[in-house]
Design goal:
single chain, 199 residues, mainly alpha, two-stranded antiparallel ribbon, 5 helices, transmembrane helix, Na/K-Atpase_Interacting
Length: 199
């Protein structure tokens, strides 16, 4: 496999997507965000299908992965709009944890946040974080959107190249119109081939 073929680039994108989604899955498990956990598991399954399809030159599997990339793009746009509170969507509605009352792990363990001990011996993050948790979650979703967009177009291109490279040479009968795989029609007779016997 050449280094800069579409198939090799697709493998690279699939591996990057797998790393990003596993990282995201770990932090979603830490925060008990059940809707993203379920979606990440489904995405991992489609990534495995895409890897198998690219490895085995199966264009149907690569097309399945490409179609899923469109769905995954929409899911991550929704997550971004929930965390950035676009229109009426807000993370306070608790849809991402499926109404269990859990919050994102990043909300309590933000990047650069310093915790202050209150009188009841619980640590609570202050507002002096370097990056607010909604932006961290939105950046993760944006990275997934970028990978899904690239994966969709690359998957379509690779699956098309698989069908162009596929030649259906009939090794048994060659290019004969009356080969073993194509029985003669009712009106024609079988062609007789001379046999040569060496003595």
């Amino acid at each position: 496999m050449a280094c800069c073929t579409g198939r090799c680039i697709l493998f690279f994108i699939l591996v990057l997507q797998m790393l990003v989604v596993v990282e995201r899955q770990v932090f979603d498990f830490l925060g008990f965000m059940w809707a993203p956990i379920i979606a990440n598991f489904i995405h991992i399954a489609f990534l495995i299908i895409g890897i198998f399809g690219a490895f085995q030159y199966r264009s149907a599997y690569v097309i399945t992965y490409s179609v899923w990339c469109l769905v995954w793009f929409g899911i991550n746009l929704t997550v971004m709009s929930i965390y950035l509170e676009i229109d009426r969507l807000t993370h306070e509605d608790d849809w991402l944890s499926l109404k269990t009352g859990h919050k994102s792990w990043w909300a309590e363990n933000g990047i650069g946040c310093k915790t202050e001990s209150s009188n009841d011996n619980t640590d609570s993050p202050t507002n002096g974080c370097l990056l607010h948790f909604t932006y961290v979650e939105s950046v993760q979703a944006a990275a997934e959107c970028i990978f899904a967009f690239i994966g969709f177009w690359l998957g379509c291109w690779v699956s098309r190249s698989f069908t162009e490279e596929d030649d259906h040479f009939d090794f048994i009968g060659g290019f004969d119109s009356n080969s073993a795989h194509h029985p003669p029609s009712k009106s024609s007779r079988m062609q007789m081939q001379p046999m040569y016997i060496s003595t």
